[in-house]
Amino acid sequence: MNKRTMKKGLAIVLALVMVFAMTATAFAATGNGYSVVGTATTYTQPIHVKVVLDTKKDSSSGNAISEVYNVQLGSVGMSARSFSVCDAMVALDAMMPDDFVIYADAEGNELTNDSTYLYGISNGDDVYFPTLPFAGYELDGFSFRVNGKIPLSSLAGDPTSGGPYGTTIKTTPIKDGDIIHFYWNYPYNRTSTELYSADFLSVNPTYSVASNGTLNLQLQKSYDYFNNSFYWNISDFVNYSEATSGTYDVKIYDATGSIVKTAALPKSGSGDISNCSLSRGTYYVRVNSNSYKLVDGTEWNVDTTMAFEKFVVQ
């Protein structure tokens, strides 16, 4: 075999190695449904995050928000600083039309960078405020997760119940590329059959170039609730397989936000999307799995959220 033939053969082998070595690194939430927050990252350049909103239905119109927003925080030439979930929501509020307002409290004060709580949202005539009482408290409202996990300051820090101790939107740090998901939740399960809490859905993608560019998707769920002793229970992620018929709409986006593939995923929670032909880079998968349930005969709360996750083909 001459040198030219050897070089050609080697090039083919290397090309095959590169193709078969391409894999997807998924950022899907798995394992624990929580994460203890760490030290905030400092930046001197703008960062970009995704904010996902899953509201309940407005009691009059029946409308709900289930959308993903691209949010930039900071500006070129800024002094070194870190960012919080609160900062991201204030930035989202600023970029939306005037009739879209994020509120910090029941008194109607708009969210600021010093707010610790997101009370509600109004979008034109539609309003998403807490209404369901429990023992004198409005227990329904927005819960949030960062990259699929409920942020905690401590696993055993609550002074009254001894359970996990959460964070505020002000004290939850975020990083460039994070996904912040706010969803309407009524985190109270009175009995084993009276379950009011929302199922937070995540999607775990696995990409294989060797199998005609097949993207396997597996839905997973986690939920949280307070019991009658106010102990905060946060479930681990498990495979979602409660529905048995029908499909969910799926969209695959590249890093620029362009749709590169649309498909359907069985509601059983797992399926393959073939012929994706994804090159190396960052992608996002959105599964429109959001659904609603009637609670106490008055409010259509979130039953299952949208699943939105990032993955990288390497």
Brief rundown of the structure:
The protein has 314 residues and is mainly beta. The chain is 10% helix and 42% strand.
Which short descriptors sum up this protein?
single chain; 314 residues; mainly beta; 4-stranded mixed beta sheet; 2 helices; globular
Uncertain parts: 3-21
Shape: globular
User: Given the structure, what is the number of helices?
Assistant: 2
SS-based class:
mainly beta
Report on this structure.
It is a single chain. The protein is mainly beta and about 325 residues long. Helix content is about 10%, strand content about 40%. It is built from 2 helices and 27 strands. It has helices at about 5-20, 85-95; strands spanning about 25, 35, 45-55, 65-75, 85, 100-105, 120-125, 125-130, 135, 135-140, 140-145, 150-155, 165, 175, 180-185, 200-210, 215-220, 225, 230-235, 240, 245-255, 260-265, 270-275, 280-285, 290-295, 300-305, 305-314. The strands form 9 sheets. A 5-stranded antiparallel sheet has the order 1-27-24-21-22, with no helix packed on it. Strands 4-3-15-11 form a 4-stranded mixed sheet, with helices on one face. Strands 16, 17, 20 and 23 form a 4-stranded antiparallel sheet that branches. Strand 7 (about 120-125) and strand 8 form a beta hairpin. The longest helix is centred in the N-terminal third of the chain and has 19 residues, at about 5-20. The relative contact order is 0.19. Residues about 5-20 have low confidence and may be disordered.
List the helices and strands and how they pair.
Blueprint: H1 3-21, E1 24-26, E2 34-36, E3 47-54, E4 66-73, E5 83-84, H2 85-95, E6 100-103, E7 120-123, E8 126-128, E9 133-134, E10 137-138, E11 141-146, E12 150-154, E13 165-166, E14 173-174, E15 179-185, E16 200-208, E17 214-222, E18 224-226, E19 232-234, E20 238-239, E21 247-254, E22 259-266, E23 270-273, E24 281-287, E25 291-295, E26 299-304, E27 307-313
Parallel strand pairs: 2-12, 3-15
Antiparallel strand pairs: 1-27, 3-4, 5-14, 6-7, 7-8, 9-10, 11-15, 12-13, 16-17, 17-20, 17-23, 18-19, 21-22, 21-24, 24-27, 25-26
